[in-house]
Design goal:
The complex is a heterodimer. Chain A is built from 15 helices and eleven strands. By secondary structure, chain A is α/β, with parallel strands linked by helices. In chain A, strands 1-3-2-4-6-5-10-11-9-7-8 form an eleven-stranded mixed beta sheet, sandwiched between helices. In chain A, α2 packs antiparallel against α3, α9 crosses α11 and α9 packs across α12. Chain B has 17 helices and 17 strands. In chain B, strands 2, 3, 7, 8, 11, 12, 13, 14 and 15 form a nine-stranded mixed beta sheet that branches. A three-stranded mixed beta sheet of chain B has the order 1-17-4. A three-stranded antiparallel beta sheet of chain B has the order 6-5-16, with no helix packed on it. Chain B folds into three domains: about 220 residues, no CATH class; about 110 residues, no CATH class; about 55 residues, Arc Repressor Mutant, subunit A (Orthogonal Bundle), CATH 1.10.10. By secondary structure, chain B is of the alpha+beta class. Classes of the chains: A alpha/beta, B alpha+beta.
């Protein structure tokens, strides 16, 4: 085979099962690609020895005819997932040298399904960011460049390492997490596909928490089918996470080609937001046309509380983060300041030194909104609005089966462009945060490129635990969009 | 939502109507309790009433912690019972221990309290070295148990009612150790995450004696239920004591909270000191500032905690890692149906057997004592005789030896045998005490001891007659004197008993002597 890294995950799976290629060959090809792409800073920890050992073990099973659903397929793991014996940092200085003695349930599920770990992927510090620029280990760089430009672009965030690794063919797929758009935003701006499943579909056990009621694991990969394969392998109920849900995980791949005939597609009028790139609005219209052409029924719907979603999110997420991150105190593990003079000094300096600016900002906001005298006005009110946002969807789903929206208001922006103004950065999540607040599943896939050749994505939002319909509709869009664009390989040494 | 219901055998039903009637009656009776007479403390302006409310932390008897599988055994090596969850490692999540919830529900039922089928765990946020997550998981607005009450027994047979406001589940923190090194503090997380029940009372107690009686009663209840071992020395039961004073009949005054007390004696001392302090402040024209106090066991005084120790904004909010705790009524009913008999019911039952209130109270105060008593009954002992025997003989010996009823050397069946022999006229009461001493010191079966050592009471009239005749014959002068001074018969009784080795039936001896000495039978 010519370039093994150009295979999709599904193609690689079939090739490995047919013994056209060994897992070791496949894994070695990706390890080499990753090594040559270090300038992109997608991997912050490469684990070639582990990868090859896992690949060899897979090859033995393949030889024995004992093949599991992701046997021998090399993937990258977002550094928010705890991996036993392998450094897990959440891309924060405060966990710079942390080596967990336990494995996250989702990564364990992947290994149990035969997958191979290539390494740990860059992300925003504690998944707080939309551009991967808050990582303590340097920003990850998108493989994409605007036509005729050498300006570096962001790979989206927070799962920027994951989207970059898939887009640059440094992994067949990657795990990611999504609290307000951290799977979907990076997928949208890198021409990759990602799904944030329903809250509770994947276990959160062993994934460094940002905002517990919003965090959800999911995959980023090249195609809708690849995501279907990966999500099936990642999802499970878990006794160690009581918010995980005990529902059977369907064979998503099986219903992929069922088409959208008769499916009711909701188009929310509130998602026509001023300031959205006109090319993205146009792509949205194109998406509607594609689905209609395949027999779907288009329904206009209303999600009236959408405009409150961002402020609600930026109260609830920081509130939970302020409490979740209290454990990083320099006492038991992680960064500890030099020569603390007392306990308070230990806390203050360890945390000030260990956390980056964006994380500190969110801890402060979260502490503020939970404080006596402010709780009712902020946190409690935000919870009420959250319930209204969820109700909007419940109402909408009386009229439609799945909702189509843009994924981001703009294509990838330049590195450093929005760092100075956090609010414009937050606005980048305007189409994605509602989904987390409502706990719903949502899939983003590439549907076209803009005039400078940068990928643009569309978002599908489904009913709770109805990922199957999302994959079906996603596949229909994928077929219609025929997205073939690839970044030029400028980074390879 | 986590729906818990009893598994499998849930056929047991609990009479809901009866419970409602019971609750209604308690509400009615509680009104009476408020009218009871208070013990006042005297100040220069007259009498002051003490008002006391308690927050009692009871460690839940459970092999595993509240949100992790780690063990809870007391006295293990430092940090040997700590899971990744307890140490708040990144990505770790709490998983509620069903058994701890069951224990809380059981306790709630024992406090005749309302069980809330839906409750919520909240995070109480603060930084401390022995609080690994930076927050304690507790129940703030929606506790698992609501209003209930406890009856307390006061000297003089008075019974008072103390209202229970709530019971909630929460995690314990670890232990900071500051005295092992000059420049380091150490943290032991064995205790971190252990389940506690915090039981909050209404301000219904009016003296240190009542507070102490309440704690004793609560301790008895949780020990009967098997939900807490009540061991105050090991810290499995600790109390925060709220104290205020007021002129009788006036509104409640500002209270002060004395934190973290784990000795009944010190609680009494602290209340007395604090109440007196508040009276002095008020009478000298001052006002009471609501504050948190510590009790100094060396000086016997309360002192304010440093403001830093109490200036917390805990930023409570519902723990997003835990769904609301929803339990099924059927499960609650099954726990209720399997509830053991509690001290009040046991006391009533013992009194119905003919025991007086005092004896019954002594016997039910500790579950082990009541169990011992009941084991004697099961071995065929008469209830009143057994109660007398235990309270007058056996417990005295235990106290003297510093032993608990479980540690005592004489089994319940042995004690039952002894008093049964008295009842059967096999031995006299005096010999019974001797037999007890022998069994205490040497062990053995009381009946065979009596047999082999010839301790059987002599009821054979012939043998006694002979002894009586011998004594009279040997003391003719005294026999003559006795005819003039009938009280002297006592001396003859003593001599006959001596001659028979104490085995003669005293009644028979008495009657025979009177007949032989020709004394009037005055009964």
């Amino acid at each position: 085979m010519s370039d093994l890294t150009e295979l999709t995950l599904a193609e690689a799976r079939d090739a490995v099962a047919a013994k056209k290629v060994s897992s070791r060959e496949l894994t070695a090809a990706f390890l080499k690609a990753a090594e040559q792409a270090r300038t992109l800073n997608a991997y912050i920890t490469e684990t070639p020895e582990i990868a090859l050992a896992m690949a060899d073990a897979s090859d033995k099973r393949i030889a024995a005819g004992d093949i599991r659903p992701m046997e021998g397929l090399p993937v990258g793991i977002k550094d928010l997932y705890c991996t036993k014996g392998v450094k897990t940092t959440a891309c924060s200085k405060i966990l710079a040298n942390y080596i967990p003695q336990y494995e996250s349930t989702v990564s364990q599920n992947l290994w149990d399904n035969g997958a191979v770990m290539l390494g740990k992927l860059n992300c925003d510090e504690f998944a707080m960011g939309s551009s991967n620029e808050t990582s303590a280990f340097g920003n990850c760089i998108s493989p994409w460049r605007a036509k005729g430009s050498t300006a570096q672009l962001v790979p989206g965030g927070s799962s920027g390492g994951s989207s970059c690794a898939v887009a640059a063919r440094l992994a067949l797929g990657a795990t990611a997490t999504d609290t307000g758009g951290s799977i979907r935003c990076p997928a949208a701006v890198t021409g990759t596909t990602g799904i944030k499943p329903t809250y509770g579909r994947c276990s959160r056990y062993g994934i460094v928490a940002f905002a517990s009621s919003l965090d959800q694991a999911g995959p980023i990969s090249s195609t809708v089918r690849d995501c279907a394969i990966m999500l099936k392998a990642m999802a499970s109920v878990d006794a160690k996470d009581t918010t995980s849900v005990d529902l059977p995980v369907p064979d998503y791949e099986a219903s992929l080609e069922n088409g959208v005939k008769g499916l009711r597609i909701g188009i929310p009028k509130e998602y026509r937001v001023a300031g959205t790139d006109p090319e993205i609005d146009a792509l949205w219209d194109q998406g509607v046309a594609w689905l209609k052409a395949q027999g779907a029924e288009i329904v206009e719907i209303s999600l009236p509380h959408t405009k409150y979603a961002l402020p609600t999110y930026y109260i609830i997420a920081p509130a939970e983060c302020s409490s979740n991150l209290a454990r990083y105190d320099g006492v038991r593990y992680g960064h500890r300041c030099q020569d603390p003079k007392d306990l308070i000094d230990l806390y203050e300096r360890s945390r000030a030194e260990g956390f980056g600016a964006e994380v500190r900002r969110r801890i402060l906001i979260g502490t503020y909104v939970l404080s006596a005298g402010y709780y009712d006005a902020y946190y409690l009110r935000a919870q009420k609005v959250r319930a209204l946002i969820a109700r909007d969807f419940t109402e909408a789903y009386k009229k439609c089966d799945v909702i189509l929206t843009p994924a981001t208001p703009a294509p990838a922006f330049g590195i450093g462009e929005k760092v100075a103004d956090p609010v414009t950065m937050y606005l980048y999540d305007v189409f994605t945060v509602t989904v987390n607040l409502a706990g719903l599943p949502s899939l983003v896939l590439p549907a076209g490129v803009n005039k400078t050749g940068l990928p643009l994505g569309l978002q599908l939002i489904g009913k709770a635990f109805d990922e199957e319909t999302l994959f079906r509709a996603g596949r229909a869009l994928e077929v219609a969009a025929q997205f073939k664009a690839k970044p030029e390989k400028w980074w390879s040494v | 939502m986590t729906e818990w219901d009893c598994d499998g055998e849930c056929g047991v039903s609990y009479d809901k109507d009866a419970r409602e009637i019971m609750m209604a009656m308690q509400t009615y009776e509680r009104l009476d309790a408020v009218e009871r007479k208070s013990k006042l403390i005297q100040g220069s302006t007259g009498g002051w009433e003490i008002v006391i409310g308690l927050e009692v932390h009871c460690q839940v008897l459970s092999k595993a912690k509240l949100f992790s599988g780690a063990a809870t055994q007391f006295g293990a090596d430092p940090n040997s019972q700590v899971s990744f969850v307890d140490a708040a490692m990144p990505g770790m999540l709490p998983v509620i221990n069903r058994f701890c919830v069951e224990q809380a529900v059981r306790t709630g039922l024992g406090l005749k309290a309302q069980i809330n089928l839906a409750s919520v765990f909240d995070r109480k946020n603060y930084f401390y070295a022995d609080l690994p997550a930076g927050y304690q998981i507790s129940q703030y607005k929606n506790p698992v148990v609501g209003e209930g009450e406890v009856l307390i027994d006061l000297p003089g047979g008075e019974v008072a009612r103390v209202g229970i406001e709530r019971l909630h589940l929460e995690q314990d923190a670890g232990k900071s150790i500051h005295d092992q090194s000059p420049d380091h503090s150490f943290v032991d997380l064995n205790r971190a995450g252990i389940a506690l029940m915090e039981i909050v009372t209404r301000p219904d107690m009016r003296s240190s004696e009542e507070a102490s009686a309440f704690l004793k009663k609560l301790r008895a209840i949780v020990r009967y239920l098997g939900t807490c071992d009540g061991n105050m020395e090991e810290g499995s039961m600790r109390a925060d004591v709220n104290v205020s004073v007021r002129k009788p009949g006036t509104a409640l005054n500002t209270r002060c909270e004395i934190k973290n007390m784990n000795s009944m004696r010190f609680i009494v001392q602290a209340i007395e000191y604090e109440a007196r302090r508040q009276v002095d402040v008020l009478e000298s024209g001052g006002t009471i500032k609501q504050q948190t106090l510590l009790f100094d066991t060396k000086t016997g005084e309360t002192r304010p905690m440093r403001s830093k120790e109490e200036a917390h904004d805990y930023r409570y909010f519902p723990d997003p890692d835990l769904l609301p705790l929803v339990i099924g009524q059927a499960w609650v009913d099954a726990i209720a149906a399997a509830l053991p008999e509690l001290p009040d019911a046991k006391k009533d039952r013992f009194m119905a057997m003919g025991l007086n209130a005092y004896d019954a109270l002594v016997l039910v105060a500790e579950k082990e004592t009541a169990d011992y008593f009941e084991a004697m009954l099961a071995a065929g002992a008469d209830a009143k005789a057994a109660a007398n025997w235990l309270n007058n003989e056996y417990f005295g010996r235990l106290n003297k030896a510093g032993l608990s009823v479980l540690e005592g050397p004489v089994s319940a069946s042995a004690n039952a045998d002894i008093i049964k022999m008295v009842g059967e006229n096999v031995i006299s009461g005096k010999i019974a005490k001797d037999v007890l001493d022998i069994v205490w010191a040497e062990g053995g079966n009381p009946r065979s001891i009596v047999e082999t050592r010839g301790l059987k009471q002599v009821t054979d009239a012939g043998a006694i007659e002979k002894a009586v005749d011998d004594v009279i014959a040997a003391n003719p002068d005294k026999a003559a004197a006795a005819k003039l001074k009938p009280a002297m018969v006592g001396w003859f009784v003593g001599q006959v008993m001596k001659a028979t080795g104490g085995k003669a039936n005293p009644g028979t001896v008495n009657a025979l002597l009177k007949a032989r000495l020709e004394l009037p039978d005055e009964g």
